[in-house]
Design brief:
7 helices, 161 residues, four-stranded mixed beta sheet, single chain
Length: 161
């Protein structure tokens, strides 16, 4: 009898330690469990609210912003100039000053090719190819900002004063 009581008590303690708070528990703590994203709990440190961070994590659910976008060292935008008429947004991007924002972007003209972006790792190995024929100039720019490693304009690295 004594061993079964100890086992029951131990089981109760373990289940309480590893369970998340109920909706009512979270509401009593000031959290709305249905709408609380775990990325919000990570922001509490910025406001010196680390005291409630553990409770927040017991009430939150994972969100998509927790995923990290993969970054690439280099990108090559390949397109045929003879197809600029079919892809005016890609032509507008290439002819604008936008590519200058990306020192690790190369524009390559390949005869007969629909526009694509090839993404390379730091060793120069091709990692991914993305078709961009339906994209506009803003989409291309946003994609490159998201997926290319930002290079700083350090004058020592660029040899410019």
């Amino acid at each position: 009898m004594k061993t079964s009581m100890i086992a029951l008590f131990f089981t109760f303690c373990v289940s309480k330690c590893y369970s998340e708070f109920t909706t009512e528990d979270c509401w009593a703590l000031g959290f709305n469990k249905a709408n609380l994203l775990c990325s919000s709990c990570e922001q509490l440190s910025k406001f010196n609210l680390d005291v409630i961070k553990d409770h927040c994590k017991e009430c939150c659910h994972l969100d998509e912003s927790a995923t990290v976008e993969k970054k690439y060292a280099k990108a090559v935008l390949e397109v045929c100039t003879c197809k600029f008429g079919a892809y005016p947004q890609i032509q507008a991007f290439i002819k604008s000053s936008r590519p200058l924002q990306f020192p690790n972007l190369q524009i390559k003209y390949v005869r007969g090719l629909d526009p694509i972006i090839k993404l390379y790792d730091k060793d120069g190995a091709l990692q991914e190819t993305v078709a961009i024929e339906k994209w506009n100039t803003d989409s291309v720019e946003e994609f490159l900002k998201t997926h290319l490693v930002q290079q700083d304009d350090d004058y020592l690295r660029t040899n410019m004063i």
